[in-house]
Amino acid sequence: MTDEVLAGQVDYYRRRAAEYDETAYGDVAAARTRIARLVADMRPAGRVLEIACGTGLWTEALAEWAGQVTAIDAAPEAVAIARDRVRAANVGFEVADVFSWRPGTRFDVIFFSAWLSHVPATRFEPFWRLLRDLLADDGRVLFIDEHVDERGKEVYLPGRDDVVERRLNDGRRFRVVKNFVDPADLERRLGQLGWDGKIGRDGRDWVRGEARPRDNTAR
Asked: E strands along 157-194, which residues?
């Protein structure tokens, strides 16, 4: 069931790519301002990996701070939009599924926005093990996601508390994993996996977080 839902989730974002900015952010100019502020606060330096880069709004902000950005997404349609949007010489894009992608290098910073909430509970621990393997010594993970208070805007499938039904502008329906973030609960869960996390709220709708493995040399 998890693999089926994840496949449908990728299909959803492939088909949503052209309308994503409008439906996700509404006022794209205002979103850019907010994104620039958050990225400036986080200061992602060195070699940065961006997971689920989408249409590149966060990528263009990351490029202002990073030495090099590797931006990946499983939806080629979204990557095409991002490539067209972000022409910075220090950014490289790749169509890839993070669960199977093996770059052969490590990163000083791993960043993702609105991605952690789409990771199924069964893959939460393996995902954070993967992040540990991708981090350079003294590396850190930075992320933005939606606060649990926003949960009411979604329609969950009967009997499921982690899969929602989403509809595109043309009416097509898809199933998507969605686990909103409770900062205190996520800090606790990360602590159990050997990470030190600091997660807080940005506005009423988003959370921002930073996590570091307690021992990044034990691999």
From this structure: 163-167, 173-177
Are 143 and 116 within 8 A, CB to CB?
Answer: yes
- Burial label, 9 (beta-carbon count in 10 A; 0-12, 13-18, 19+): buried
Sorted by where each begins, the domain ranges of the chain are: 2-213
The one-letter amino acid at 22: E
Q: How far apart are CA 98 and CA 76, in angstroms?
A: 14
Model confidence, pTM? 0.95
The class of domain 2-213 in CATH terms is: alpha beta
CA distance 125 to 136: 19
**For residue range 103-126, what is the model confidence (pLDDT) as tens digits?**
999 999 999 999 999 999 999 999
- Where is 72: in which H helix or E strand? strand 68-73
